[in-house]
Amino acid sequence: MKNGPWMFLSAQRRAGTSACACLCLLIFVFSAAAFAGDAPNWSLLDPFQRTMTRADFQLRLDRVFSPGGAFQKFLAQDGDGVAVFDDEQHQQRLYHLQFATDTRRVVKRTFKTLEDLPALKNPPDKPLRGLRIVLDPGHIGGEFARMEERFFKMNNGPAEQEAVQNLIVARLLAARLQRAGATVLFTKNDFKPVTDTNPEQFRELAGKYVQENIAMRPDVRALGELAREAFLLDATRKRMELEFYRNAELRARAALVNERLRPDLTLCIHFNAASDGDRPAPDNRLMVMIHGCYTPDSVDTPQRKFDLLWKLLENSHPTELAAADAISRVMGADMKLPPEPVRFGPNSTAVGNNPYLCARNVIANRLYHGPVVYLEPYYQNNPTTYARLLAGDYDGERAFDGQHLRSIFREYADAVAHGVIEFYARHTLAAPAGR
To answer: Among 134, 155, 278, 343, which is 20 to 30 Å from 121 by CA?
Structure first.
């Protein structure tokens, strides 16, 4: 399983409702600058006041968002709500949230909840009509693929870029969802970054990080003077690049999703890889992620605390969970893939009784508003998968290791489309006449 968006393998490094008291229109504008800064505008949470009961808030926090208790340390319950602090000693208060009691304020959200879907009354051939679905093909690719460490090959074979694979799937998937009536939007549809920044702009930030976190390590201090200088310059370069392709790029995509696209569902499209040293993955598996499991280092700043509260209070979780549960089960059956074993820990936990599904605090899930389903099927470092990726998209079937298999990209896109359509059709189709 990939450990983060910066840890991909190269050939040598890894083969591996209640009643309504009032109606509040929520209009949320989240600029790229707000993402990048560490001083959030807490008043943006005001529309959520008195929209969630104390019991619901605590249950969601304990089971989904912070099951390890990392965020609860910054909270102080009082008579009508909860105070959020920047420190565990509760000296610097950031915000006060009021809970709903006998009635709740109703927030009109930018996405359709499960309760909203039956009003669409769609015909059977257009179950996705009236829905906006964003496809987020992971990574930048092109000239940035090596920087991102998403440049993969096996046994000195041709190189594959994950961004290329993700984009092929996204384009195939878009056509299938459009035929079912959806409005399909992309965060990106080429190999250009969404962010308008470049790595050099993060030199000062990267240098500060290196000095505070790397330079004083005993192993680094033990280096000779010139070796240490060279090592720190290279560490600064790597950190600059990381700030660019991970933080800046994903924050720019989030600003696009949240300000302009405003989808009912976002699908993050990726391929997985197994971490097993230099050994090829012996099989293929499927993992699907939803948002949750904040760790101490993901609630250590005001902005990250704000992000958690926004995702919790926007109440996208029920829709996200239902969608991810349905999509992942269909994908597993259609692709004939067993589940990726959930690695229980501070940043990952199983969800319900679905072995394909886990809650994990992935940056895209955290920053994108509304329901987000993060898809990671296959292991790219499985020899059969690698061969299928190299074969590209094609009609019909081709032989791989004695098996006749369809294009891996069509297999992926068809399975996701099947799952999305099946899920929404349960909620959006008009009742037959006479019923």
So the answer is: 134
| pLDDT confidence band for 434 (50 / 70 / 90) | low
Question: Looking at per-residue confidence, does 247 or 3 come out higher?
Answer: 247
The dihedrals phi and psi of 105, each to the nearest 5 degrees, come to -70, 145
Q: Is the pLDDT of residue 18 over 90?
A: no
Write out the DSSP string of 250-272.
Answer: HHHHHHHIIIII--SEEEEE--B
Residue type at position 296: P
**More confidently predicted of 342 and 146:** 146
pLDDT for residue 433: 61
Domains and their CATH numbers in the chain: 20-108 (no CATH), 117-194+244-428 (3.40.630.40)
Amino acid 7 reads M
Residue in 355, 362, 368, 363 with CA at minimum distance from that of residue 287: 355
- The three-state secondary structure class of 417 is helix
pTM value? 0.90
